[in-house]
Each structure stands twice: as C-alpha cells, then as structure tokens.
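Lecture 7 notes: from sequence to structure.
We start with the chain below.
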Amino acid sequence: QVQLVESGGGLVQAGGSLRLSCTASGLTFSNNGMGWFRQAPAKEREFVADISWNGYSTYYGDPVKGRFTISRDNAKNTVYLQMNSLKPEDTAVYSCAARRIGNTNYEYWGQGTQVTVSS
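Predicted structure tokens for the same chain:
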C-alpha cells in the first residue's frame, strides 16, 4: 500500500519560511518523479513544483518561482519543499504526489498539510 505523508505545515507570518516534507512508503521512491500541489478554499488545485526521479530536473508554477525550492533525498524516501518569502496568498493545503518515470500523471497523493500565512 502506497502512502505519502506530508509534514511541516503551520502558521507563519508574511515574509517567513517553512519547509515541508513528504515521506513515501510502499513504492520504489527512486522510480518516481514527485510533485507538490496546493489548494486554497474555494479554489482549484494548483501545481506548485515537480522534481524528476534523480533530482536533476525541477519545475515550478509561476506564482512560486524564485521563492520555493523542491528537493529530494532518495535514501530517505523524502521530497521537500522549501518555501521562502511567504505571502498570504500562499495559504493553502499542500499535498505531495508521485508519478512513475516517464509519466506526467500523478498516481498517488498524500492527505496534505495546512500552510497559513498571516499578513
């Protein structure tokens, strides 16, 4: 059974930083690209970032470019999202997801962790 478990969310003031973690089990982590998505209340889910299976390629949604950094540690089956210069509009539930190498669709999803940025 595949499980993706996020952690590291919380309440932070605007301009602050948080680091999210997502630890995977039940799959061969190094065979999967990983992504982060977010969903704010009454809004559609939004792509945040993606990282290739080996960490060599990363992609970001326009709203977070230059502020967020995705990384991974295959030895720990964990993907990270370092979020700097946070804004109130970054407030959302952040979820990680896994996709097999060569696929663009994400097969597995975590439950999410709440990030709240106060002004």
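Points to note: The first strand starts at residue 3 and ends at 7. The chain has a mean pLDDT of 97.
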